[in-house]
Amino acid sequence: MPRKQDMWTHGTSVQIQDKAWETKAFREGHSTRVIPSGDNNVGWLHFAIPTPVMVDDPPLKAQSALLRFGAGPQASIIHFQVFHGIHKDAIYDQKVNYTNKDHPIEVPLTKQPVIIGGIDISIQVLFTETAPKIAYIDLIGAGIRFSS
Q: Going from the N-terminus, what domains does the chain have, and what CATH number goes with each?
């Protein structure tokens, strides 16, 4: 499938599910740094991806999910999900073990639906320590690669 378009959202737009983590999120011009609360070392982070629904014919399909992040040695992404529109079932749902990266990760989507609604990328993060110098994740951005 020929690549048609990539759509990204910046890391500063991340939504943090655990309210205790929200108080420990630091948004800067280049990313959002999240560190764990003392109470919870596992939590979900969500990216709402700008989604072109009507571009031209043939309609767009979600080809792969993209993520760019950095992490301390005591942080890793342990679950990666992609949701489409109002559908409650993820079009991609996988346990993973992503550690520190300084380049985008591209995850091919096994289901590639025709796009009729917004797309969300959700990641579950595990911190094995709570010390902020080693237990952090820097969220730079997330996106979707579209094809026709």
A: 3-147 (2.60.120.260)
